[in-house]
Amino acid sequence: MTPSFPTTELETTELETTPNGAVTPTGPHRMRWRSGGAETTASATIEPGPPARESADLGRAMERAAAESADGVAFGALPFDRSAPSTLIVPTRVAQERPSTPLRRGSSRPAEPADYLAGVSAVLTRITDSDVDKVVLARYSDVTLHTPGDPLDIAARLADRNPSAHVFALPTGPDRHLVGASPELLLAKTGAHLRSHPLAGSARLTGDRAVDRQAADGLRRSDKNLREHRYVVDAICDLLSPHCRRLSAADPDVVSTDSMLHLGTVITAELDDPSTPSSMLAAELHPTPAVCGTPRAEAAAIIGATESFDRGFFAGAVGWQDRAGDGDWAVSIRCGEVTPDRIRAYAGAGIVAGSDPTAELAETEGKLSTFLAALG
Ligand SMILES: C=C(O[C@@H]1C=C(C(=O)O)C=C[C@H]1O)C(=O)O
Question: Considering the entire predicted model, what is its pTM?
Fold first, then answer.
């Protein structure tokens, strides 16, 4: 579907306080979204919304936001933490295009590789000693900026470089955008029809066709990668099936991005109730074992104890919903948080029994490069 917004200038001052007086949306902020070849650039107000764990409330809040928006479509961003507030993004009008400005970068500071290697080793010990099967461990890389970077410009460069990705620059707070090019569809809903395309199990692309073909064949046969992938497919099928009358998962295939090869599985389903809001279903699925692990709560606790930073909206979900509850939701990976003086890029890798810390570190480098390469 193609959300489209009025080109006429609408009033973009702050919206009214909601009836219970709790939330005042702020804005205007600028946003960009591109999926399935359709691109939207808009001004929007933002407001805090219910957390993912209150999925039914979130679904209702998105329905209200879609009804308020200029074109009947609202956008949302869910943080990694299921209990932290979401951000509801309500477009008000088409944004004025600004001339693009080159980024003036200062220093770059990747997170210490040694810390990541130690973290993977610690997680492997926890996997051996407990019932936890998979934990996704992440790291970040900071780039300081001499002049504020334009999040919409970065998204435009990501869109050029990643033609089939879900590309987003969504405001998540004052002077703060989540910007990225996600290859991973969490959930698309059109009427009763659902589609999900989880990715997990990865190899780095080299650019040498013969080597990459071998790596793709290796992925298809790798017990470690197939296991890592299966946890994600099973979790999505288990969580969707109570809502569906028909659900099927294809065999895993290999999907490529600009820098990576991944195992991917297409899951399709028919909803019992076609009016179920897509945001509610996305919130129930989130976070899948592709970005958290399995079992979910235990893996999230290990992540909290091992990672030294707050993931914020990285490894969350971003998407839109219209008045019928239809929408597209992507897993917020291959992304960074853009503030006026700093960009923080994130990447993670799934750790299971048999994972090699050095290979997982290299995997995060490959994943980070999708976002960092678009900074110019
Ligand atoms: C966590 C990320 O990617 C996820 C993890 C993958 C893996 O561990 O193989 C593959 C694709 C994504 O589901 C990321 O890009 O940061």
Answer: 0.93
